[in-house]
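As a warm-up, study this chain.
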Amino acid sequence: MELGAQTGIPATTLAGKRVLLVISGGIAAYKSLELIRRLRERGCVVRCVLTQSGAQFVTPLSVSALSHERVYSDIFSLTDEAEMGHLRLSQEADLVVVAPATANILAKMAQGIADDLASTVLLATDKPVLVAPAMNHRMWTNDATAANVKAIEARGVRRIGPNEGSLAEDESGIGRMAEPMEIVHAIEDYFGARAPLAGRRALVTSGPTYEAIDPVRFIGNRSSGKQGHAIAAALARLGAATTLVAGPTSQADPAGVTTVHIESARQMLEACLAALPADVAVCAAAVSDWRADETAAQKLKKNGKGAPDLKLTENPDILKSLANAGNRRPALVIGFAAETQKVVANAKAKLKKKGCDWILANDVAPATGTFGGEENTIHLVRAEGVEDWPTMSKDGVAETLAGRIADALGRGE
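Now compare it with the structure written out below.
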């Protein structure tokens, strides 16, 4: 199934809106082709300015074929200027989007340099501008780039990303361009075209739980919280009043989300029950199954008599508790099944055992790099069958799931 059909967002949300897309030179330029396609699916009119360096990564022919519009690149083209002058390009747009926005074009925008068509259009425009930065992480964290971004944001330029993840030349860090669907949603948010979960309440759990053994040690797991935090952010972007119950993680609190920080499974359950009623609950946290029966008041020390005898007690089942919450049960209860073998089979068993509506099964064996990584491969398990999603970024999984939730709640499931 095509992912665009999975978002649950009507294709007319941007109908008639005119976007001028500036494609500058960077390896992320290939994503601009997908961005054009997704905008066109939603009825958006997309005109494109392709810089000379951008044309090293994508061809004018491919951009034109997807946009169904002439591609503009040369400020000194008499034909282009006669048919569509550089001033008209921005004047006839509702929004100017720069994706990818390289360090070079951000610097030009900050300094008011106009030495090619793209920079001239950006200097001349009186329309709102959205940039999606993309560059090496060292360039993004350079003081010069930080100053340039601060300068253009002070003038009202909007920004989405960059994300953290794999970069060119086998490097990783912050500098990866936002995914096309993230940019689409930012554009929809700007036009106020998208809030299918307005008036709905969402509850999301994320990260690990830590179960204390003594004041220093704990039982925990390797969950980073990236997937759960991304889901909370995606639901909030669709208009849901979202509460995120987060275990210990280095992830920043998502914008527009009420975040409750906890450590233990019992604290997480208490916070979840306090967040009810909710229309949807997504249990993405990796909750510790057991805790120490007793927590030592002082740090346990070696005494030459061997390891201490830890007695473990089973933790409360948060997913099952929410799925069986009686008249406070969310209309849609969704869990994750993090497995290292028999992924789908174990997820089917979990769906039945917990009494929830959906299970998102994923393989978290060390070889997959899912825990702490940037990508995830999901199998959506429901009573009516299993749907295998392609490998996506965790942000992409979050956006797809949020769209599915909006669609399901809209149908009254």
